[in-house]
Write a structure and sequence with these properties.
alpha/beta; 165 residues; globular
């Protein structure tokens, strides 16, 4: 790493180390708030970006780790989870649930564990890249490590006919 980690990324690094994830956090020179920005900065397929999206699922926070190659279908996901309603969390709700800002939400390092869904589309990539607590930081990991570090449930976040589009 060429520069010191931002404070929020230090907590993420500690959580990753405690979970046995070997990947080191990389500090990018420019923001990687979107999957396209992150993929361009890293030089990987946009689908290998594990986007961290926070939703409100029947009033409770839900972290969805999804492939940067598509958007979460909230109606499909609600049906899969047996929930009545899933909506995008507000900026304040994201910060409250994760302690991190939108564009830098990591899969771990939150004030408390979050119910998490991990997109099955991500398993096709040997190396995934996730935000690491700050819009300028990312961390590599495997699909299995992502499942383990989040305690997440593997699930399709779009209907099968829409996957990969």
């Amino acid at each position: 790493m060429s520069s010191p980690l931002p404070a929020r990324s230090i907590a993420v690094a500690e959580a990753l180390a405690a979970a046995g994830v070997a990947g080191e956090i990389v500090v990018l020179p420019d923001s990687a708030r979107t999957a396209a920005e992150a993929a361009a900065a890293i030089g990987c397929n946009v689908g290998a970006i594990a986007n961290s999206l926070v939703f409100s699922c029947d009033g409770e926070p839900l972290l969805v780790m999804t492939s940067g190659a598509h958007r979460v279908d909230t109606a499909h996901l609600a049906a899969e989870l047996g929930a009545s309603r899933i909506t995008r969390a507000s900026t304040d709700q994201v910060r409250e649930a994760t302690g991190q800002a939108i564009g830098g939400v990591a899969p771990t390092g939150h004030p408390a564990p979050l119910r998490t869904v991990v997109d099955t589309e991500l398993q096709q990539y040997e190396v995934l890249w996730a935000a690491a607590g700050h819009p300028h930081t990312v961390v590599p990991m495997t699909y299995q490590e992502l499942l383990e570090v989040t305690g997440g449930t593997a699930m399709a976040v779009v209907p099968p006919s829409a996957a990969g589009s």
